[in-house]
Amino acid sequence: MPQPHLLITGASGFLGSWLCEAAQPQWQVTGLYKRQPGSDTTVNWVQANLCELEQLALITHLNPQAVIHLAAISNTPYCEAHPDETAKLNMDMPIALAQTCTHHKIPLIFTSSDLVFDGDNSPYKENAPVNPQTVYGKQKAQAEAGVLAAWPEAIVARMPLMFAIGDSDSPKTAPNNFMTRLLEALKAGEPLSLFDDEIRNPLSAKVAAQGLLFALDLAINQRHRGLLHLGGPQAVSRYQLGVMLAEAQGYDPSHLQACSQDDVTFTMHRPKNVCTDCTLAHSLGFTPPSLAQQLAQH
Ligand SMILES: NC(=O)c1ccc[n+]([C@@H]2O[C@H](COP(=O)([O-])OP(=O)(O)OC[C@H]3O[C@@H](n4cnc5c(N)ncnc54)[C@H](OP(=O)(O)O)[C@@H]3O)[C@@H](O)[C@H]2O)c1
């Protein structure tokens, strides 16, 4: 029997690279990219600028049996400085894509973010009111609502801070990712100050990719629709995460120093605690390994 066909947008990015790997061989994967295809030669790479809504004709042409939509501009300062430009990809495209998927009855997973929350009332359940404080968070919140209005059978997966550990020049480790910079500092034995009052429930990109495929399975089998929190199992501060990473990877954590958000003046809002309550995903069967296990696995 031929493999079913999965279309992944943003397949060349950080999470996309892990998702392409995890989805095969169960799925035959077509990966959309804008600038440069990913390195996975088993993926059918197709170039498309998803800021242009007419590119949606591709969906009909490619005729996938499922879509996971990752493509986004998630650099929050860039979104703050370029709200109109980034709204095309972060907001208009997911909604238009959901309309196309409705038309063809294609299961759709859209990746949103814990930054739809303000950070003052965690842990957040799926039905907690959103209150985004950044342009990026507002775009994601509007996209979520638009996607689910257009295609109620879609799943909007709210992702946490994600990490991967490895060479900084690999797309699978995201060069500007917090963990990549942290690991480089640990390797070099450089002092590094990390917030002890900024709390997240992080997830490795490898496990996050498994979570998205799990969500796709739920959508296909009509076991869930709507919002789904795919956060990690443990709430930690960035400082605690740094110490845990050092211990898991055999580096000296004594160069890491705890500091407070209050010690720094920010140009944009930085939520203190956007941890999501993932009871729903757990009850449906998504049970990620402990954070310590995820940090040691790489
Ligand atoms: N990373 C995290 O910690 C995190 C946390 C919460 C939610 N998320 C969400 O998870 C998803 C994946 O994030 P990520 O970290 O993997 O992002 P990423 O590494 O920045 O990758 C973004 C992807 O989008 C593509 N893209 C950008 N502009 C495009 C355009 N105009 N047309 C078509 N494709 C375009 C990029 O393609 P090219 O590289 O070829 O330009 C790339 O494949 C996003 O929706 C993000 O908002 C991420």
Provide tags for this entry:
298 residues; Rossmann fold; UDP-galactose 4-epimerase, domain 1; 2 domains; 10 helices
Describe the largest sheet: 7 strands, parallel
CATH superfamily of the largest domain: NAD(P)-binding Rossmann-like Domain
Strands of the widest sheet, in order across it, are 3-2-1-4-5-6-11
Regions with little confidence, pLDDT below 50 for 5+ residues: none
Look at the structure and give the mean pLDDT: 94
Bound molecules: NADP nicotinamide-adenine-dinucleotide phosphate
Q: What sort of overall outline do the alpha carbons produce when their principal axes are compared?
A: globular
Give the ordered list of helices and strands.
EHEEHEHHEHEEHEEEHEEHEHH
Give the domain tally.
Answer: 2
Discrete helix count: 10
Helix content: 25-40%
Summed up, what is this model?
The chain is built from ten helices and 13 strands.
